[in-house]
Every structure is written in C-alpha cells, then in structure tokens.
Amino acid sequence: MVLSENIIKIIDQNEKVILSDVPFKDLLVDFKSVHILTYDEVKLLQKCSSNKETGLEFLEILKKRNNRLFFEFCEILKSSTVESIQEVGKNLQNIASNTMEVGYALN
User: Fold this and answer.
1) Residue-wise DSSP of the chain
2) Rounded to whole angstroms, how far apart are CA atoms 85 and 99?
3) Residues 6 or more apart from 3 whose CB is under 8 A from it?
C-alpha cells in the first residue's frame, strides 16, 4: 500500500517544523534499519549538502512508502534523546492517529 492522502497532507502541513527540528543525516541508519530507506537511498541522502536538502529528499521518499513506515518514522523521532525531536514524533503520530481509522492507520 501507499501512504494515505491524510498522512501526506500531515507531512506537507508540518514540513517546516520537521525540516527545522529533525537531524536527518544523523538518523539515516535508523531509517534504514526499519526499512524506510534502502541502502542506495541512504547513500544518495548522505551526499546532500545540507540537513534541509536531506530532509526534503527524505520526505519525498517517505511519501512513497506506506502508513506503517510513517509511524515507524514517528517512533524513531520519539525515541530520540532530544526533547524537541521527541515532540515532533509525538505530534505527527497523534495528528495522524486522530485523523484515521485505527485499523487503516497501519496499512
């Protein structure tokens, strides 16, 4: 399955805070470990010149994944040792969970 339109809208509406708070390059291996990214995608993203560029490319990849991987993304953010990153993960997960049917959220 592909990412639901609701979650794509949530990503788009929260893009500014995601790009400013999430240290994408530091989390690439974590994203690969839960299969959000492939090895080749990690290599490609490592070549980006800034966190913002990495983040924009990552979000485009994430939008082509499924809802379960979006929630994995949120879990990785929530497990950060940095409180502001944890908050981004919690907020995204809460918004997505509240806008979707429970059974459909994990498709």
Assistant:
1) -PPPHHHHHHHHHTHHHHHHH--HHHHHHHHHHTTSS-HHHHHHHHT-SSHHHHHHHHHHHHTTS-HHHHHHHHHHHHT-SSHHHHHHHHHHHHHHHHHS-HHHHT-
2) 22
3) 62, 63, 64, 65, 66, 67, 69, 70
Whole-model pTM: value is: 0.90
Is pLDDT of 103 > 80? Answer: no
Six-digit token pair at 50?
Answer: 């800034």
Cα 44 from chain centre:
17
Neighbour-count burial for 78-87, b at 16+ CB within 10 Å, e otherwise: bebeeeebee
Interval 7-53: pLDDT, tens: 999 999 999 999 999 999 999 999 999 999 999 999 999 999 999 99
pLDDT tens-place string over residues 69-79:
999 999 999 99
